[in-house]
Design brief:
mainly alpha; 11 helices; 0% strand; elongated
């Protein structure tokens, strides 16, 4: 490696370090870098809710969306992701952060994924809703979880 190449690499390393120490630089890396691992590391360092929302909604890689969702707190965004994301992993992560009992009841009754429905069931606090799920869900696992959750709530 010649001196000029070494200087260019050193400059690139410095620029990369500077970008990863500020949210705008991290956002740029997280949203545009071609390397999945680099995007993932940037997402894990992000704190800007607007950028995390964009990534959670628009990123093509489900695992990166999942990591972004785990950092979101906006209930409306989380509900939208829980209803619309194509990945059960991402929907499950969103459901795990939702507190709205009505939304959880709807998701527990309608999501195609057993794992997503199970996550919703364990977050529901209304025995009447859980009783309906325990009686009607197509999955034995979800019905049993609803029954266990009722017992847990009733002490």
């Amino acid at each position: 490696m010649n001196k000029k190449t070494a200087e260019m690499i050193a400059k690139m390393d410095t620029e990369t370090k500077e970008k990863t120490n500020n949210q705008a630089g991290l956002a740029l890396i997280a949203e545009t870098n071609v390397d999945r691992g680099v995007r993932l590391r940037a997402v894990l360092k992000l704190t800007d809710p607007a950028v995390l929302k964009r990534i959670a909604v628009a990123e093509t890689d489900a695992f990166i969306r999942y990591c972004a969702v785990l950092q979101l707190t906006d209930p409306a965004v989380l509900k939208r992701i829980a209803w619309t994301d194509t990945s059960p992993l991402v929907r499950k992560a969103a459901v795990g952060r939702i507190h709205d009992q009505g939304a959880l009841a709807q998701i527990a009754g309608m999501d195609i994924s057993v794992d997503v429905r199970l996550t919703a069931v364990w977050r529901i606090n209304a025995p009447a809703v859980l009783e309906r799920i325990a009686e009607t869900d197509i999955s034995r696992h979800v019905r049993e979880a609803a029954t266990r959750r009722i017992k847990e709530l009733r002490g």
